[in-house]
């Protein structure tokens, strides 16, 4: 039997082919109570000035500053206190010469006042049963006043679409009255694990079989990327049931991920399934390690990601190829993993002709970014994934890398992203 020869393409070219797919984000409205952790599908615009009235930032007395100009330690100036208001109350009085209003933080400045005297610098007392206060220093117009629009001006674009809604954005949305928030509809990502060797998590180990760990791993990666997981279950390595399952699943999702069965083995059926479906294979070999066998196909604008069964290869394949298209559907302008430079802290002697993505721990020490592999660098390894917050990019070549050299890293937990990393 003649083995099909696969032609590896560069990683940048592979990503480009996927990103040519027209899939775009769709807006849905959710209650503000459910918007935390979602992605804005429109720019967040200030619907009013904040604050929308001049207000006191301290507890004290609202005065007209010109009445205070003669006040000094030797010449206290006295004010009649004509009203008393807390936040949420509006004084009906017009404040006249040498008059003041007792005012609490957050209350609207009464008509005729333009400065606030904090309690700490005033002396208050009663005369003939009426409240008075005196001060021994002068105040300028605007002293201790929180002005209209000092926080935001009506019409300002405050947060760009595609941003992850964090607690601060939640506060803004509430401030501007967004009871219903336009967010990106989460893409539904279908997922199958293939492999006759796969056991359920609850099953006991038996010779030749292993527990299906990729499903749980990718499900978490889909969620981290911002998608919704639609897990269709695991499939044995048998052509007909796999073909039917994949075909039917495509009616329910736009993105379909499979793990395993994508290489050249006798029971690796994904290539034949794509062929029978009539799907257009975008690539079936990438010059990268791990994940060189990653195969991506397109069928009716739906994308089929044939990720490797080897856990580390599967993990890397997801982050490089599936994450960006999910993020684009979340309106991100920077859908790829953020790339930074870091200093390698250990030797990495193993040379490889393909670009390597080494599961790594990137950390800050002595004020700079440093990186070290988080475990064994083989594509069948699971344990190196736990400590990986980044993928170190080691370009292909004939030499290894030494401690102290500068390398590029892709940050897995970052929310900022990158426009185009290669
Ligand atoms: N003659 C060749 N053999 C292989 C090549 C090659 O080019 N020529 N490529 C190797 C590379 S590179 C990789 S990576 C693997 C890819 O294999 P498949 O994607 O076809 O995946 P499987 O054969 O189904 O499984 C591979 C490996 O992963 C384990 N696995 C599968 N699914 C899971 C899961 N859900 N959870 C945990 N582990 C899983 C499986 O038991 C196998 O050990 O092919 C090489 N071979
Ligand atoms: O390239 Mo295989 O995909 O991990 O080693
Ligand atoms: Mg295989």
Automatic annotation (TrEMBL):
Its cofactor is Mg(2+). InterPro entries: MoaB/Mog-like_dom_sf (IPR036425), MoaB/Mog_dom (IPR001453), MoeA-like (IPR038987), MoeA_C_domain_IV (IPR005111), MoeA_C_domain_IV_sf (IPR036688), MoeA_linker/N (IPR005110), MoeA_linker/N_sf (IPR036135). The keyword Nucleotide-binding does not apply. The keyword Metal-binding applies. It is an enzyme of class 2 (transferase). Keywords: Magnesium, Metal-binding, Molybdenum, Molybdenum cofactor biosynthesis, Transferase. Its EC number is 2.10.1.1. Pfam families: MoCF_biosynth (PF00994), MoeA_C (PF03454), MoeA_N (PF03453). It catalyses: adenylyl-molybdopterin + molybdate = Mo-molybdopterin + AMP + H(+). GO terms for molecular function: molybdopterin molybdotransferase activity. It comes from the Bacteria. Transmembrane segments: none annotated. Residues 190-328 form the MoaB/Mog domain. Pathway: Cofactor biosynthesis; molybdopterin biosynthesis. Catalyzes the insertion of molybdate into adenylated molybdopterin with the concomitant release of AMP. Belongs to the MoeA family. This is Molybdopterin molybdenumtransferase. The lineage of its organism: Bacteria, Bacillati, Bacillota, Bacilli, Bacillales.
């Amino acid at each position: 039997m003649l083995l099909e020869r696969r032609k590896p393409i560069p990683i940048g070219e592979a990503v480009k082919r996927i990103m040519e797919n027209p899939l775009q984000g769709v807006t849905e409205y959710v209650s503000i109570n459910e918007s935390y952790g979602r992605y804005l599908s429109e720019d967040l615009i200030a619907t009013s000035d904040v604050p929308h009235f001049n207000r006191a930032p301290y507890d004290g007395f609202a005065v007209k500053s010109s009445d205070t100009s003669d006040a000094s330690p030797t010449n206290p100036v006295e004010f009649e206190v004509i009203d008393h208001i807390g936040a949420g109350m509006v004084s009906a009085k017009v404040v006249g010469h040498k008059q003041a209003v007792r005012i609490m933080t957050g209350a609207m400045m009464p008509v005729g006042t333009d400065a606030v005297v904090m309690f700490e610098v005033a002396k208050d007392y009663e005369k003939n049963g009426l409240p008075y206060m005196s001060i021994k220093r002068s105040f300028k117009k605007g002293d201790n006043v929180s002005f209209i629009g000092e926080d935001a001006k009506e019409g300002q674009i405050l947060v760009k679409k595609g941003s992850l809604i964090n607690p601060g954005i939640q506060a803004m949305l509430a401030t501007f009255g967004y009871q219903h928030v336009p967010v990106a509809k989460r893409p539904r990502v279908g997922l199958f694990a293939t492999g006759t060797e796969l056991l359920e998590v609850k099953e006991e180990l038996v010779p030749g079989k292993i527990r299906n760990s990729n499903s749980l791993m990718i499900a978490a990666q889909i969620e981290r990327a911002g998608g919704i997981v639609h897990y269709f279950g695991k499939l044995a390595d048998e052509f007909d049931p796999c073909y039917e399952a994949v075909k039917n699943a495509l009616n329910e999702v736009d993105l379909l991920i499979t793990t395993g069965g994508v290489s050249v083995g006798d029971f690796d059926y994904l290539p034949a399934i794509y062929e029978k479906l009539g799907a257009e294979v975008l690539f079936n070999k990438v010059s990268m390690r791990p994940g060189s066998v990653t195969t991506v196909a397109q069928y009716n604008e739906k994308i089929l990601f044939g990720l490797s069964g080897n856990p580390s290869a599967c993990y890397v394949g997801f982050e490089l190829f599936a994450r960006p298209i999910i993020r684009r559907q979340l309106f991100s302008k920077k859908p790829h993993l953020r790339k930074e430079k870091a200093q390698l802290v250990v030797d990495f002697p193993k040379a490889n002709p393909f670009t390597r993505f080494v599961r790594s721990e990137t950390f800050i020490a002595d004020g700079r970014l440093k990186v070290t592999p988080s475990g064994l660098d083989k594509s069948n390894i699971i344990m190196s994934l736990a400590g990986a917050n980044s993928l170190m990019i080691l370009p292909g070549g004939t030499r290894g890398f030494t401690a102290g050299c500068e390398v590029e890293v892709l940050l897995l937990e970052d929310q900022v992203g990158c426009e185009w990393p290669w």
